[in-house]
């Protein structure tokens, strides 16, 4: 489907077959991201990883982040931070004494703490302020900037109130990130991680000072990468946990089955051993199904780098292309009862998160598949296992599960429109 938004033509793809042509068969031809005012401002002129143009800079920065921070080995090394923060969450929920809690706020705080501790090392005094500014920046970036649809109009571009608000938010973020980076520069240690290792900023400063890349990097590039990692690690994972808990509460049969599994695997334990989470087969199906109905990125953005023919259609250079992940993952042509939350549909399926099956792309596919997938899933799995193990859940004020509002909030990522208020009853597990 082709749309015309002002002066801007956009192609929306809702077919797995055509998505395969774009994301696999002709991946290099569509390896760029669309440009937009909000992305240019908040992601430091596209010098991050998610929105950077395909090329040498993107390849080198992605490689550095994958090998030095987001590799499976490094993600495992963050296990004690995950356990520490999830334990704080469980303690906080226990203290609610049967009163309704805002689970969205609790989960957002959890993921912010985990991600900031892994990226900044010892908890920075500026972490809280950064998260507030980041959330507001992402909210603004998810809205419409009229100037993007009329790029030839200097008047629209100059008088854009959205652009002014984004620039103001960027300046606030600059001050906070400059302070965090300066803390690391002034530190006598080059290893500011909590366990004597390098944190993300240490790694990026080392790369900057040593000239390890073919292209020099500066503090603005470092800030762009930080914004990527923190926003991705916080927003998408917290959204996934909230959606999964909402679906479980709305579907008591699935909730009971998932709780029975986790309570059997960890029977008598007060601490959940992360190594045993691999045994939670049904929970993994639950997460897969939640990501099917509520993909973190409902639209996967690409941009053509050259003129090319796809399925008999000529795609011009620099055409914005959006893979409609949300539609494909609910299409009855490929999924039976697509609107029903049914984890068992994946029981005998080989579909995974790697983007090889083009009707299911929660993390994208090809060269630009989500680099933080392993990090995010580790946080999601442990958090959900602990929540299901330690508590029974119900809605407040006598609200029935089937009446739970599941309306989505439009934006860059898929999130619930309403906060999820729940009552948690501690589960008395037997030794």
How would you characterize this protein structure?
The protein has 431 residues and is α+β, with helices and mostly antiparallel strands. It has one domain (31-296, 370-407, 416-426): Orthogonal Bundle (Cytochrome p450), CATH 1.10.630. The chain is built from 16 helices and 11 strands. The protein has a 4-stranded mixed β-sheet with strand order 1-2-7-4. Strands 3-11-8 form a 3-stranded antiparallel β-sheet. Helix 5 packs antiparallel against helix 6 and helix 7 (127-141) runs antiparallel to helix 10 (161-186). The longest helix has 32 residues, at 219-250. The radius of gyration is 22 Å and the shape is globular. The termini are far apart. The mean pLDDT is 90. It holds the Pfam family p450. This is Cytochrome. GO terms for molecular function: metal ion binding; monooxygenase activity. Keywords: Heme, Iron, Membrane, Metal-binding, Monooxygenase, Oxidoreductase, Signal-anchor, Transmembrane, Transmembrane helix.
